[in-house]
Amino acid sequence: MPIRDLDDRLKARLRIQAAEHGRSMEDEARAILRAGLAAVPSRAKTLVDSIRARIAPLGGVELKIATREPVRDPVNLDK
Fold first, then answer.
1. I need a labelling partner for 43 at 20 to 30 A (CA). Which of 8, 63, 69, 74 fits?
2. CA distances, 29 to each of 22, 66, 74 (Å)
3. What DSSP string describes the chain?
4. For residue range 9-62, what is the model confidence (pLDDT) as tens digits?
5. Hey, how many other C-beta atoms are within 10 angstroms of the C-beta on 28?
6. pTM (2 decimals)?
7. Can you tell me the distance from the alpha carbon of 10 to that of 29, in angstroms, rounded to the nearest whole number?
8. C-beta separation of 54 from 63 below 8 A
9. HSE-up of 23 (CA within 13 Å, CB side)?
C-alpha cells in the first residue's frame, strides 16, 4: 500500500534514515509504523492528571484560592 502525497522533506528524511539503517524506504516506513503502533500510549487517569503532566515541566503554577462567602438570601420578587 503506497503512501501518497508525502511531503518532499519528509520523503528525504525517510530516505536518509533508511540508508542509515541499511533498509529500503518501504522497509523503513514499515519499521517506523511497527514501532509507533507497538508502543502502548500512557493515559492519565483524570483530566487533572493530564493538565498537571502538561504544566509540571514548566515549573507549575500556584494559584491563590479565593475565600468563600456565605450564600445570600434569594431575592423576593413578590413585593
1. 63
2. 13, 53, 66
3. -PPPS--HHHHHHHHHHHHHTT--HHHHHHHHHHHHHHSPPP--SSHHHHHHHHHGGGT----PPPPPPPPPPPP-TT-
4. 999 999 999 999 999 999 999 999 999 888 777 776 899 888 888 888 888 778
5. 19
6. 0.50
7. 11
8. no
9. 12
Please give the pLDDT value at position 9: 94
Crossing angle of helices 8-20 and 25-38, in 10° steps, is 90
- Residue 57 Ramachandran class (φ > 0 left, ψ -120 to 50 alpha, else beta): alpha
Residue 1 clears pLDDT 70, i.e. is over it: no
Q: Which three cell numbers, joined as nine digits, stand for 42?
A: 500512557
CA 32, 35, 38 angle in degrees (round to 5)?
145
Cα angle, residue 74 at apex, residues 72 and 75 outer, rounded to 5°: 120
* pLDDT over 80 at 79, yes or no: no
